[in-house]
Amino acid sequence: VLFYQIVYFCRPFLRIKIMYAIVEIAGQQFKVEKDQQIFAHRLEVKEGSKVDFEKVLLIDNSGKVNVGAPVIKGAKVTAKVLDHLKGDKVIVFKKKRRKGYQVKNGHRQYLTKIEILKIEEKAAAKKAPAKKSKPKTKAKPKAASKKSSAKKKTTTKKVAAKKAE
């Protein structure tokens, strides 16, 4: 761990390029790298579980840039949910001078702390669940039935025209 910390802090000077991606998480775009921890809006997932984000907009792999239109098909970012928490309190203060109007509100945003486990350019194809096939039975020959092809004659009634007197 110490080696990676040194590499992380000295990276601008050593010119080491690490793979990163721009991914959309909960409606926001984040630039993420492997083993990075970020705070995103609350995800409806249990703590300790893994999450796959498939809206990957860009991947940079050691200078080789892959840009999606709008997303890269087959790419995904896997992350682990570490914690659900609330952010710092944000104070909202409104005032109109010389009017005696002051309103003070505040709120705390619900957040999820996640750690990026891996970035994949081409995710493995999902295998379809195997379907159990029923043993085929031999088709029984149907008795040939002849349908009468005689056409029925249709009769129409002719209405006699009434004579006006």
TrEMBL record:
InterPro entries: bL21-like (IPR028909), bL21-like_sf (IPR036164), Ribosomal_bL21 (IPR001787), Ribosomal_bL21_CS (IPR018258). Residues 124-165 are annotated as: Disordered. Keywords: Ribonucleoprotein, Ribosomal protein, RNA-binding, rRNA-binding. One of its GO terms (biological process) is translation. Residues 128-165 have a biased composition (Basic residues). It holds the Pfam family Ribosomal_L21p. One of its GO terms (cellular component) is ribosome. GO terms for molecular function: rRNA binding; structural constituent of ribosome. Belongs to the bacterial ribosomal protein bL21 family. This is 50S ribosomal protein L21. It comes from marine metagenome. The lineage of its organism: unclassified sequences, metagenomes, ecological metagenomes.
